[in-house]
Write a structure and sequence with these properties.
With 349 residues, the chain is mostly helical. It is elongated and about 80 Å long.
Amino acid sequence: MISFRIHPKAAAWLCAGFLATAGMAVAQQPSFYVRGKQAFAEKRYAEAAKLFDESATANEAAADPTAADSLLMEGKALSNIGDLAAADRVLNRYLRKDERSAPALYLLGYVLQRENKPRESLTTFTKAAAVRTPVAEDLRIVALDYVLLNDYLDAIRWLTRAVKLDPLNAAAWYDLGRSQMNQGNFVAAQQAFDHTLALSPKDVKALNNLGLSYEAQNRIPDALHAYELAISYQKEAAHPSEQPLLNDGNLLISLNRAVDAIAVLEPAIQIAPKDAKCHEALGRAYLQAKRLPEAQQQFEQAVSLAPDNPRLHYQLGRLYHLTGAEEKAAAEFKLSEKLYGSHSTSDGK
């Protein structure tokens, strides 16, 4: 009988070697791919993109099948940080390896839409749909391509299909409302925004647009309430929007409620100090309240921000006339008339 025996000293040496090797394995860092997945899960997208790029490069050289998945994940990470050009390149690189990858095609369609390339995006979505039936969110992005092409009827058609597929898609309802508004169908727009708000009650953009829809229907108390809700919900926001304040202020001016309008338009200026419309609205409110020096300051600021706007020059000219600065008024009226061209300056009132 043959027996293989190991000398005790040799056994000890082998055991020590095994333990050292095991220790090295334990100490070894996880792969770029694993670390990238972890970073992506934790929404550290910039870090994830770099790790997936390292993984794709290393695994491609080693003919590892995870190289392609690394490219797809890198594309996702890049799209999340808004590096659309890089995402476009990475996804096209992936598709050269697998041209019928539905996830890559749908993601590329989304990236192209955000790059303001609607025709290329629609072509890509058509290829994707031949591989896998689109879901509601895919149809929403298709609709946004049509919005970029100024084709609101097709946008409404695809958004209507999207909300039928997924009635809980608040973004699709919102986009449908915006598209209906563009077509002048304010009742349908209001209904779409109602759906959005049923799903996301504190959606400031939806409330602001709901206010516009009500205003277009001459439902003034409802419009004011919608704007006020939008303003209240964004008070603690890191990046509030001036739009509900501006819309509320303009409506209050039309109701001759100058003091209330000033109260909402002054904060609008703080949010958007370089928005000519905000300065114009606050100027109108000050003018209505007979606060002429402040009105002049706001109109002058509006003109400096939008010097090619004939309406602003006309309004500033009217204010100069009210304050007795006739030479300045004449200059503004002349400039307004020149900018309007063949149109009468009365169009700017």
